[in-house]
């Protein structure tokens, strides 16, 4: 029997946009749609097992050999300065890294700024390039709250539709870089399961072309 290839798929936004693409690639992902509280799914018609994971954990599973493939946002990979082997940009889950705050924020102010973010490395790198020393406060979620409750002067976060910023009366002051969903692989798995992994990549490339 063929050994199953384990794919860590990031829960939430990435999962929602990746499942339809996997379907176009010909994979039967019905068990994942019907997941309830389950986390591991053997796909019925292919040698792949999907494991739902938190984004920052995908690299941990990959580097420890617990999974063979990861499907994760480039925001997470960039923040983790991860050298995981990237095989494919799925061209979905497109977001932007932004600097945002309340409309009265002055990005040119020389006062040492306090920045709230889930992405301290990206934030540090951005301000270092501008020659600015800032205080960074790491926040785990709902980063938009930080300038609203007086925790930070501004935030560095990702935005997709812009709805969260708009509904909280926050303004974008700068665009840092683009984000999209990537397929990454454990190099050891690539050696051991080259055919199955490249078969999946070929099918995903076909699905991306079919969609466009
Ligand atoms: C991200 C980000 C924003 C939101 C923006 O959070 O941190 O809060 O999405 O999306 P929008 O521009 O479409 O409104 P995510 O949904 O990944 O959840 P989290 O804060 O729990 O990490």
Please describe what this structure looks like:
By secondary structure, the protein is α/β, with parallel strands linked by helices. It has two domains: about 5-95 and about 180-210, 3-Layer(aba) Sandwich (D-Maltodextrin-Binding Protein, domain 2), CATH 3.40.190.10; about 95-175, D-Maltodextrin-Binding Protein, domain 2. It contains nine helices and eleven strands. The strands form two sheets. The chain has a six-stranded mixed β-sheet. The protein has a five-stranded mixed β-sheet with strand order 8-7-9-6-10. Helix 1 (about 15-25) crosses helix 9 (about 195-210). The chain is elongated, with a radius of gyration of 19 Å. About 35% of the residues are buried. Bound molecules: 1-O-pyrophosphono-5-O-phosphono-alpha-D-ribofuranose (PRP). 1-O-pyrophosphono-5-O-phosphono-alpha-D-ribofuranose binds near residues 157 and 158.
Spatial extent as radius of gyration: 19 Å
Mean pLDDT: 96
Assign a percent range to the helix content.
Answer: 25-40%
Major pleated sheet: 6 strands, mixed
Name the CATH superfamily classification of the largest domain. Answer: Periplasmic binding protein-like II
Outline, from the CA principal axes? elongated
Instruction: Measure the end-to-end span.
Output: 36 Å
CATH architecture grouping of the largest domain? 3-Layer(aba) Sandwich
Structural class: alpha/beta
Present as ligands are: 1-O-pyrophosphono-5-O-phosphono-alpha-D-ribofuranose
* Discrete helix count: 9
**Topology as a string of helices (H) and strands (E):** EHHEEHEHEEEHEHEHEEHH
Tally of DSSP β-strands? 11
Domain count: the total is 2
Low-confidence stretches: none
């Amino acid at each position: 029997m063929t050994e199953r290839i384990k794919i860590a798929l990031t829960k939430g936004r990435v999962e929602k946009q990746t499942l339809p693409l996997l379907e176009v690639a010909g994979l039967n992902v019905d068990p994942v749609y019907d997941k309830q509280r389950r986390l591991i799914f053997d796909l019925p018609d292919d040698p792949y097992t999907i494991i739902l994971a938190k984004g920052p954990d995908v690299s941990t599973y990959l580097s420890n050999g617990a999974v063979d493939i990861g499907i994760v946002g480039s925001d997470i990979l960039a923040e983790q300065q991860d050298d995981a082997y990237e095989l494919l940009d799925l061209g979905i889950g497109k977001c932007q890294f932004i600097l945002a705050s309340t409309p009265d924020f002055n990005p040119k102010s020389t006062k040492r700024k306090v920045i709230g973010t889930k992405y301290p490395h990206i934030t540090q790198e951005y301000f270092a390039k501008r020659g600015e020393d800032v205080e960074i406060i790491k926040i785990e979620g709902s980063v938009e709250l930080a300038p609203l409750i007086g925790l930070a002067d501004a935030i560095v976060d990702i935005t997709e539709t812009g709805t969260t910023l708009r509904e909280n009366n926050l303004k974008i002051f700068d665009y840092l870089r683009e984000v999209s969903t990537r397929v990454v692989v454990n190099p050891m798995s690539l050696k051991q399961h080259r055919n199955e992994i490249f078969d999946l990549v070929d099918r995903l490339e076909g699905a991306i072309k079919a969609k466009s």
